[in-house]
Amino acid sequence: MLDPVLIANAVVSGLLLGCLYAIASMGLAVSFGMLDVVNIAHPAMMVLASCVIAALCAPTGFDPLLAALLIAPVFGLLGAGLYRLYHLYFERRGDEAMQGLAFFFGLMIVIEVSLVLVYGADQRWVETGYGGLSLGLGPVGLPLRMLLPALMSLACIAALLLWLRRSFTGRAVAAVAQDRDALRFLGADPIRIKTVAFGLSVALAAIAGGCLIVVQPVDAHSGHVFIGRVLAVVILAGLGSLPGTLVAALVFGVIENVTATLFGPAWSPAVAFSLLLAVLALRPQGMFGRAHA
Amino acid sequence: MSRPLRLNVGLAAAGVALILILRLIDNDYAWYTGYVILQYVLLAVAWNILAGYSGYVNFGTAAFFAAGAYTTILLTKALNLDLLVCVLAAGLVSGALGLGMGWLTLRLRGVYFSIATLSLAVVLQTLVVNWPYAGGSSGAYTMRPQGYAVFGNYSEFLFVLMLVLALGGIAVAAGIERSRLGLGLATIRDDERAAAAAGVPTLRLKLIATAISGGMMGMAGAPLPYYASYLNPEAAFSLTHTINAMAMTLIGGTQGWVGPVIGATLLSTLQQGATVTISSAGNLLIVGGVLILFVMLAPKGILGLIRAWRGRGDTA
Amino acid sequence: MNAVLDVRGLGKTFGGFTALNGIALTVAPGERLGLVGPNGSGKSTFVNCIAGDFPDHAGVVLFRNRPLAGLKPHERARLGLSRTFQLPRPFRSLTVLENVTVPLRFSVPPLPVADARARARACLERVGLQDKAHSHPHSLTQVDLRKLELARALAPEPALLIADEVMAGLSHSEVDQILDLLFALNGDGTAVIMIEHVMRAITAFSQRLAVFVAGRKIVEGDPQTVLATPEVEAAYLGT
Q1: What's the CATH code of the domain at B245?
Q2: Span C5-237: which CATH code?
Q3: What residue spans define the domains of chain A?
Q4: Does residue C109 have a cis peptide bond before it, meaning omega lies within 30 degrees of 0?
Q5: Hey, what CATH class is A4-282 in?
Q6: How far, CA to CA in Å, does B87 sit from each of B36, B72, B93, B165, C82?
Q7: Residues 6 or more apart from B273 whose CB is under 8 A from it?
Q8: Euclidean distance between the first and the last CA atom of chain B, given in angstroms as a whole number
Q9: Which residue on chain B is closest to C87 by alpha carbon?
Q10: Residues paired with B140 in a beta bridge
Q11: Residue from B50, B52, B183, B68 nearest B105 by CA
């Protein structure tokens, strides 16, 4: 029969995992949800960050979460440049639908294969001082290797939400998501705003990469299963709803972790993608969002 | 001779010529190389029926292809059916898969269809990995017959089978381009709302296209277990099939069946040559890089470049 | 009742915003109805509801006595309900002639290729595009694009044509060309709903005029009387 302690543990670590999924999805919620740039290479960028962080931290003992904060601006700049290219070659030509999608797919392959060529196909991880430690809440354990990334994710998401609500640029990003022409009246250049926002989304991928490498070992293809997860979360949340993205990610983490506990981990990739298929078939406007079909 | 007839006679003649040339070379490696190139010709032509003709990007090539390969595994194991029957069954299975997939997601904006096809591969692969009868994660072996009917050896038979499938695929694609279906798909690609307002049953045409395209991919995968004698989920569902079909088509040009044929022939010949010198990862890196360059700099592919170059020649 | 279009209690909301509210409107066979109203008054939403783009609207729409509920846009088009789009939406990869064959090749039953091309050619002659039959839409001028849009809409000989701002941005003489075309089409028995901001065209064309303001039909009747009512002057012409 079902052991309640086992289930409680599965739910709690599912929530912690959900925080990781939230930070992994948040960048895509900005690029796909708000800017309508379908960056399917987002998970690959996250894994790229994980590998870079592993290369920096494994020999030096530097903390991966701090390292993530340090490389995030670099990723942000690269992302901004990438958006400029995307805009120049696809958005402006009206070729997003096919060529643009193919572009990001190609980018994903190139990132993955480059990782294989540079780092080999083996798993990479980082030893941290808190790797083996755990907080106990009665019979439920909170391993620090999951708790700390979860807290960092939540802090970054809170900062992102504040920025979108309070700052001028942040509000302009939100306005771009609603109506591109509205910005012209504000005297803001939509392309510049989208460049900033896309850069930010890639910076978030870097932070997610730092969290990921603390939670689990990573290999070049770790991004694949995340494609299903993050797309499911973003679409389930209703494109562009950031609080919705957080809730959907938590729900998702719990469902996936409980499934893995009950049926075995071999089934967990199918959970993500089956849920994604179900969402697309039944409720493409998501739980919280506007119709976008 | 009418144009369609001329095309079909031309295709048949090209096929016979290919067989004769390879008979002269007559070594297993030649038959194998030819098989792989033709397999990609078929995959690219099939992928383009959806992408080029109707504007919908399918990221699930590997899923349709693998569904075909596993149909062969299962039918051979359960009923010991002949490969030719398996090929037809694989076409039906993958066609039905396309139909179901399309029915679920083709009402939505195109990008959701693409995302859903991406998931299809992972869901199917997980199913196969967890299905011991189909070989599970460790894979399944296929016993290869010694020879087959009039063919010198089984490699030659597999090559001729794939040749017939590829040429048949081209004939189907060319037929679609000339047909009412092709006209309807073109209006969907150009402007789906205006198409519906002109009376085009958009959903039905997209479903037909997805089923035909998926079925052709399944047939391309059906002989794979015999080609390789051994099949595991990783090889069958490899993203390589997806990226190749897509890159070959976009590099060749999406306007008609000629583009994917050129792209597939060119790219897979290069790949077959390069496997000797470059690792498969390096190979994939080149395909990805070339794909990115082409979609950015030559969105109409090699055919587009040729046309632009000819156009310049005319005005000069 | 023998109306070609009979709309009762038509309503549509987007989120909390009411775009159309309790619209009732009938169009008799062969009639020319003008539909005016300020921007955002619900005219386009009205067209989209009738054409089947918003299946979740309130109220009933009867087309030649047949309820349209549950019918997709292409099914409505095949019944003889044609519409144009405010911004012309040609099929970019097809020639002008092929553009016009599309509704004929997808009618029920479909016309064979040769017949469809012959009919399309006749339509192009009618709108004056016969010389551009083999051009692609990107090489057409604005007025020619409008003509193509009209040719595609009238090719299947619809019972009702909804012409949504087909004259916006055209010059005086171009407006006259399009107007002649619509009169000729109407002479063959097609009822026309003209949605337009060009008042000269509306008053010349309409036998009856309906005015929408903020999602409601505020007045309907013969054009001179309607335009003279104070509400219309205040809500529409005053702005």
Answers
A1: 1.10.3470
A2: 3.40.50.300
A3: 4-282
A4: yes
A5: mainly alpha
A6: 16, 7, 10, 9, 45
A7: none
A8: 35
A9: B194
A10: B231
A11: B50
User: Which residue in B has a C-alpha nearest to residue C137's C-alpha?
Assistant: B190
Q: Would you give the DSSP letter of residue B151?
A: B
Q: Which of A73, A91, A98, A76 is nearest to A196 (CA)?
A: A76
Write out the H or E segment, with its range, that includes residue B243. Answer: helix B239-252
Task: Give the count of beta carbons closer than 10 Å to the beta carbon of residue B187.
Answer: 29
What is the rounded end-to-end Cα distance, in angstroms, of chain C?
A: 37
Binary contact (B127, A270; C-beta < 8 A): yes
Q: What's the total number of domains in chain B? A: 1
Helix-helix angle A223-236:A4-28, to 10 degrees: 80
pLDDT tens digits, chain A, 293 residues: what are they? Answer: 568 888 888 888 889 999 999 999 999 999 998 888 989 999 999 999 999 999 988 888 888 999 999 999 999 999 999 999 999 988 888 776 788 889 999 999 999 999 988 888 788 888 777 777 777 777 777 888 888 889 999 999 999 999 988 888 888 888 877 766 665 656 667 888 899 999 999 999 999 999 999 888 888 888 888 888 888 888 888 777 888 899 999 998 998 888 888 887 777 777 777 777 777 777 666 555 443 33
Three-state secondary structure of A91-131: HCCCCHHHHHHHHHHHHHHHHHHHHHHHHCCCCECCCCCCC
Q: And the tokens for A152?
A: 């960092």
State whether residue A237 is helix, strand or coil.
coil
Compute the distance between CA of residue A110 and CA of residue A41 in angstroms, rounded to an integer. Answer: 10
**And the tokens for C171?**
């010059």
Supply the Cα-derived Rg of chain A in whole angstroms.
19
Helix/strand/coil for A140 = strand
Beta-strand relationship, C81-83 and C66-67: unpaired
Q: What is the DSSP string of C57-89?
A: -EEEEEETTEE-TT--HHHHHHHTEEE--SS--
- How does DSSP classify residue C237? I
Angular region, B199: left φ>0, alpha ψ -120 to 50, beta rest = left
Interface confidence, given as ipTM, is: 0.90
Beta carbons within 8 Å of B145's beta carbon, 6+ residues apart: B154
Q: How far is B172 from chain C (nearest CA, A)?
A: 19
Alpha-carbon distance B48 to nearest alpha carbon in chain A (angstroms): 11
CB contact under 8 Å between A114 and B285, yes or no, is yes
Domain boundaries, given as residue ranges, for chain C: 5-237
Does B243 contact A293 at a Cβ distance shorter than 8 Å?
Answer: no
Give me the residue from B104, B126, B295 closest to A280, CB to CB: B104
Choose among B189, B199, B201: nearest Cβ to C103. B199
**Domain housing B215:** 3-315
Separation CA B203–CA B237 (nearest Å) = 28
Across the interface, whether the CB atoms of B199 and C152 are under 8 A apart is answered: no
